[in-house]
Write a structure and sequence with these properties.
The chain has helices at about 5-15, 30-45, 105-115, and strands at about 55-60, 65-70, 75-80, 85-90, 95-100. With about 120 residues, the protein is α+β, with helices and mostly antiparallel strands.
């Protein structure tokens, strides 16, 4: 994974200043627990040889989301405040979705998920 530390740090700084209603009336600010989950995920995948992501964003729920679109295969991962991640995999014809509970305890599940794009 390409070193994008500064970009991530800068973008999180921007997201952290968003207030309620940052885009639409009910949009929530960045949830700190979602941020912790996102950082844990980055720590888990930091040494893996995976394609660069298409970027990450703040969702209207105040959670962070990262996505890849590689050779017609898409992966979106949302980092929830309870250290759970939800994902959506798109193979260009079939989609699957699911959740991994307690990301800090399930590194093997994260590795399996990342293999989808690797």
């Amino acid at each position: 994974m390409e070193d994008k530390g500064f970009y991530i740090f800068e973008q999180i700084g921007i997201f952290s200043e968003y207030k309620i209603g940052w885009n639409y009336e009910n949009d929530l600010p960045l949830d700190r627990e979602s941020l912790k989950c996102f950082v844990e995920f980055l720590w888990i995948i930091k040494d893996l040889d995976i394609p660069k992501s298409n970027g990450f964003s703040l969702t209207p729920n105040g959670t962070l989301e990262i996505e890849w679109d590689i050779y017609g295969r898409g992966l979106e991962i949302e980092f929830l405040p309870d250290y759970k991640i939800e994902y959506l995999c798109d193979t260009g014809g079939a989609m699957s979705e699911g959740a991994i509970f307690k990301i800090d305890k399930n590194h093997s599940e994260v590795y399996k998920l990342i293999k989808f794009i690797g």
